[in-house]
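Lecture 7 notes. Example A: sequence first, then its structure tokens.
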Amino acid sequence: MQAILLSSEEVAKRAKELYDNGIRQQVETSENIGKMIIIDIETGEYAIDKTGIESAHYLRNKNPLARLYGLRIGYKVAVSFCGDMERDYQ
């Protein structure tokens, strides 16, 4: 099977659609707020940990060709350089 090349914008769009249309309701709990979620945009599978590194390794071990995208649960941005991270209240 030939892989379809997606732009960074399309990868982000697919990940956010998956998150907003089902994953968000399952993972946005008080114990997960601020953790990283890594999403395989092709399968919808995801994993959560503090930094996202372990989750990315876990998903890559399952599928080395996975297209992964990371989000910080409960926030509008994953990381912030010299500023506050704005919460995303849904």
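Example B, a different protein, same format:
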Amino acid sequence: MQHWFMNLERVALSVLLAATITYAHRNHVRPATPLPEPVEQVSLRSVSIEGDLPSGWTVGAAWQIERGGWWMGGFSGLEFDGENLVTLSDSGVVHRFTPPGPHAESLELRPLVLMPEPLSRDSEAILVDGDRLRIAFEGDHRVADYRADGALESDVRIANLFKRNRGVEALLAGDPAIAFGELGDVALSLENEPRELEVRGARYSVTGAARWPGSDQPLLLLRQFGLFGMRAFVAAADVGEDAVEVSELQPLPLGRFDNAEGLAVRAKAGGGYEVWVVTDDNRRAPLRSLLVRFDVAPDGWPEGLSSD
């Protein structure tokens, strides 16, 4: 009887989670006012992340970011720009901030509202390219370039290879950049004429992508959404002429209500790497906005990296 009630509870939680995500996907609403201040201070609460990790990985620090105005939460992308981290909310707001230290209790965000609205809603992935921002939009299959002041520079509708609200979820830097669809089975090489790539071995949704510094090797973030909630993975990948081969899926010990959607990597001065992950709370409980730093030893997974 106890086992039956546990299964019922899991089903109920799964239905709640699915309803939360569906509601948020249909309501990427951005009010006209109030606009965020040039600098927004938000509170951080340290959280515990425990469980199995890839070889040579440890949890350096993890925080829950408090909910704030409409420009807060819904974090769906993460990228390093020099020494700063840049994250993207699904309502079209880019936030720059200095990576917090392990004992930080607050975060100073510098928000940039993308214009025009409503074109900047449902923003899901970001690349920093010099003084430009490249943003991918999931719902209507677009990739757009913005100037440093948030003004739209170019807007390209890409081939409609993806299902509604299952469009581009991750961008991988490169020449050309690669756009991954959320279902994890197809990607686009963003050349002058975008070219379709088959994605093999992903198994789950591709929600984030980065390259290891000093190496051309990609690192992917994946999310499994199932009956009992969500699971997060990282994976190695190889980009070929016609396909992206995904391999060595490694679980990350995030919670079943942690919707991992952004990934960034940088080298550490003493060797090794920092891998940062951000989660999307869709502005609804029980999901939460987490910022997690994983420390990777020089000889950690995957093999063959060198941060010297």
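Note on Example B: Residues 2-29+41-296 form a domain with the Neuraminidase fold (CATH 2.120.10). Confidence is low (pLDDT under 50) at residues 4-13.
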